[in-house]
Structure formats: C-alpha cells, structure tokens
Design brief:
Layout (H helix, E strand, L loop, with lengths): L3 E5 L6 H15 L2 E8 L2 H4 L4 H4 L4 H31 L15 E8 L3 H9 L3 E4 L12 H8 L4 E3 L11 E6 L3 H16 L2 E8 L6 H11 L7 E6 L3 H6 L5 E5 L17 H4 L5 E4 L1
Parallel strand pairs: 1-2, 1-4, 2-3, 4-5, 6-7, 6-9, 7-8, 9-10
Antiparallel strand pairs: 5-10
C-alpha cells in the first residue's frame, strides 16, 4: 500500500515536474504528499556551490553573500511553489488524516539539516519523489544514491519535461535480480491501478528467460495485472521503454560504487540523468 510520499522541495524550476509526478502517483493511491524544504545557510551550501571555490580574498565574502541570497530565494520559492501547486490542483493542506479519499498535502521545513534528516523522512514515507541531479538547490550530488541505498524505500526520479497527468502505462524493466523483485513489489499498487503494464527484459547476460518472463506474467495475473511481455536488445532499455510512452518505468537500482556505472545491468546513467519519463527505483 502506498499512502505517504516524501517530496523534497528545492525552490528551483525542477519543483514543477517533481510535484506533478508526485501528484500523479498520489492520485493513483489517494496518498498524502509530504513536501519538505531544507533552508540552507551560505556556509552549509558553500561546499556544493562550485563558484565559491574560485573566490579569493574579498571575493569570498561577496560570494558567500550572494550564496546566502540564493538560499533565501530558494526557501521562499519552495513554499510558494507548494502553495500554488496545492491551490491550483485543489489539494487540501492538512497534517493528519481524515475521511477524505483523495490526495492531501502538508509542508515542513528544516534549517541547515543534513542529508541524514532527509533519510529519516524518506524512511518514514512509502516513496520519495526527487528531481534529476542538477545542483540547483546546493544539495550533495550523491543525494539520489544515498536515498536509494540507505532509506530502504523506493525513490521516483521525475523527468525534466512535463510530469504525467496520471499513471496509466507502466513499464517494468525486468531482470532476475533481488533489486528488480523488490522494485516490482514496491510498485505493485501502481501496477494494479494501471491500464497497461509491460514486462520488458533486456537481452543480455543474466536476462530472464522466456519461460521465466511467462511465469512472472502469470503470477501478476493473481494481482489483477495482465502484463504484455517484451524483450529488447542489450543497452536499449530507455529507447525500448520510450516506445510505449510510459507514465512510469520501474527498475531495480544498484548502489554504492556500482551505482553510476551499473544500474539494471548494462543500462547507462542516461536513465537517471536524461530519461524523458519518471523512473521508479528500489535497491
């Protein structure tokens, strides 16, 4: 069951797609959206602001002052994005559940909190919805990897383009690995609500056999899911998945040293950094 989504609000333009993606998922499950912003100081943000490293002498003070203003602007924008988003979509803002069967939302904010604080929120939620790593909010570049490998929960990466209006078509990138199995289980409530589900296996070493895919498909029928089964060439998961115009792609995610070079076997970083659709990952 998916009932709570954690959505870090950056205050940058990535919020729009992230919020929209979270709403599409939340609407499928009548979930509560937990929006959260970390209001950084210049000193906390400086290690993740490349231009500060090049400042010398009096330029350091000027660079930090500019960075502080940027952090203030992000905080103001983040809350404004949240309010506008909820008002435009008529999402009730509340902190406790009631008899409502629709999407609800709440807001919280920390000052100078570390990534460990985000991990706590992620662990306490069913899914975290994040933007692609663009360093527009001065958060660590490894934040996605950290939440994926240490939260014990799935994450969804929103595309830079428009978010889906709803989760109707789901592609499951399948490989016979524990990570893929965990991702499938975590995403099951979304598969059960979808009108089309595609099991897509990559033809490479360790790929699922045709009989294994058929068996998996037959087990999903017990959940009310009747998937199509497809096989694509090695290294072409993103291209093959895009042909189905998916609202969501579900894959198992590797972590630690393997993460940036190896996710879903031979699939490249492009799935993380440039896929034009939301990507649901579970480690």
């Amino acid at each position: 069951m998916i009932k709570t989504l954690f959505i870090p609000a950056s205050g940058s333009d990535t919020d729009h797609s992230v919020f929209g993606t979270a709403h599409a998922i939340g609407a499928a499950c009548a979930a509560h959206l937990r929006f959260h912003h970390i209001h950084l100081s210049a000193g906390t943000a400086a290690p993740f602001a490349p231009h500060v490293d090049f400042a010398v002498g009096r330029g350091i003070a000027a660079a930090l002052e500019e960075l502080q203003q940027s952090c203030e602007t992000l905080a103001v924008n983040a809350f404004a994005h949240y309010r506008t988003f909820c008002e435009t979509r008529q999402i009730p803002m509340q902190i406790t559940p009631d008899e409502s069967r629709g999407v609800t939302a709440s807001w919280s904010e920390d000052t100078n909190a570390s990534v460990s604080r985000l991990l706590i929120h992620a662990r306490h939620s069913d899914i975290s919805v994040l933007g692609r790593p663009r360093n527009r909010d001065f958060m660590p570049s490894a934040l996605i990897e950290t939440l994926l490998t240490r939260s014990g929960r799935p994450i969804v990466l929103a595309p830079d383009s428009d978010a889906p209006q709803s989760i109707k078509t789901v592609v499951v990138g399948w490989k016979e690995t524990p990570e893929a199995a965990r991702a499938l289980t975590a995403a099951m409530p979304l598969l059960e609500q979808a009108s089309r589900v595609v099991l897509l296996s990559v033809a490479e070493d360790g790929a699922a056999s045709e009989s294994a895919l058929t068996d998996l498909a037959s087990q999903l029928v017990w959940h009310g899911v009747s998937p199509e089964v497809r096989v694509c060439p090695a290294g072409e998961l993103q291209t093959a998945a895009a042909q189905f115009h998916p609202d969501l792609v579900v894959v198992g995610g590797f972590g630690h040293g393997q993460f940036r070079e190896r996710m879903f076997g031979g699939v490249t970083q492009s799935l993380i950094y440039g896929a034009p659709f939301p990507v649901f990952m579970m480690h």
